[in-house]
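Journal club prep, shared notes

We agreed each person brings one worked example of a sequence with its structure written out as tokens. Mine is ParB. I'm keeping it raw so we can talk through how to read the token line rather than staring at a rendered picture. Sequence first:
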Amino acid sequence: MAQIKKRNTASSGRGQREAEEAFIAAAEAPSVESLSVEQRVSKRAEGRYFGLISYRGTEEQKALIDFAAKEAGLSKQKLIEEILMPELEKRYGEKFEQR
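Then the structure, token by token:
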């Protein structure tokens, strides 16, 4: 006769507790519509980064981006991100959430 194993349905420690806390925090988080543009940009910046696009430009445009990044003391990636993402969020962020 096969033996029946009972599952332990009690929370299984730290991992389960962290998952429950993350679920509760997400439920209590304000909706995207109530966040400012800066807060939405910051929220969308959380997570894993990967290549989005390959941007083409002229030699002059490249030189301008190189110069601007050096003047700002930022990487080219960070410079473009700080300009592009807030503008995209202003124009399309709320519509994006409603799709």
